[in-house]
Specification:
single chain
Length: 146
C-alpha cells in the first residue's frame, strides 16, 4: 500500500539494510525484509540495537528498519545523529545515502555515497556506493535502485 500511496519513492518497497559481519539478528532482519516482512525486520533490528548500543551496524539497521514513507523522520532522525556518533562508519554514510536516494534527495545522496566510498572503496559498501554514484550522477535516482 505504501508504494501506491507514495509513487515519488522507489516502487520496490522498502530500502534493504546491507549488513557487514555476522550478527545473527541483523542477518535475520535482512531476510525478513527481502521476504517483505518490514515490521518483523524492524523488531529484529531494534533488538540488535538494544543488545549492542555501541555497534554502529546495529544502530544503523534499527534506523533503516524504521523507514516509513509517511514519516521520513522516523529513519532520518536516527541516522543524522549516527553520523556524529560514528563519523568513520561507512555503514552510516552508505545507508544515509541509500535513504536519501530512495526518497529522491539526489544531491545529498551523492555526497553521502561519496563519503561512503572514500571510507573504503574496495569494501562491499564502497563498491555498492560506487554503483549508486554511477546511476545518480548519470541518470538521476531512477537508476539507483537495485
Amino acid at each position: 500500500a505504501d508504494v501506491i500511496l507514495h509513487p515519488q519513492f522507489f516502487s520496490r518497497g522498502y530500502p534493504i539494510f546491507e549488513p557487514l559481519g555476522s550478527n545473527t539478528l541483523l542477518q535475520q532482519g535482512v531476510l525478513q525484509q527481502r521476504l517483505g516482512h518490514q515490521h518483523t525486520a524492524e523488531r529484529l533490528y531494534q533488538r540488535a540495537a538494544r543488545q549492542s548500543p555501541g555497534d554502529a551496524q546495529a544502530q544503523v539497521a534499527a534506523a533503516v528498519g524504521r523507514f516509513d514513507m509517511d514519516d521520513l523522520s522516523a529513519s532520518f532522525s536516527r541516522l543524522g545523529p549516527l553520523v556524529k556518533r560514528f563519523p568513520k562508519s561507512q555503514s552510516v554514510r552508505y545507508h544515509l545515502g541509500l535513504l536519501l536516494a530512495w526518497t529522491g534527495q539526489r544531491d545529498q545522496a551523492i555526497a553521502e555515497f561519496r563519503q561512503a566510498r572514500t571510507l573504503g572503496p574496495r569494501t562491499t559498501l564502497g563498491k555498492h556506493a560506487e554503483s549508486f554514484l554511477a546511476g545518480l550522477v548519470t541518470g538521476g535516482t531512477n537508476g539507483a535502485g537495485r
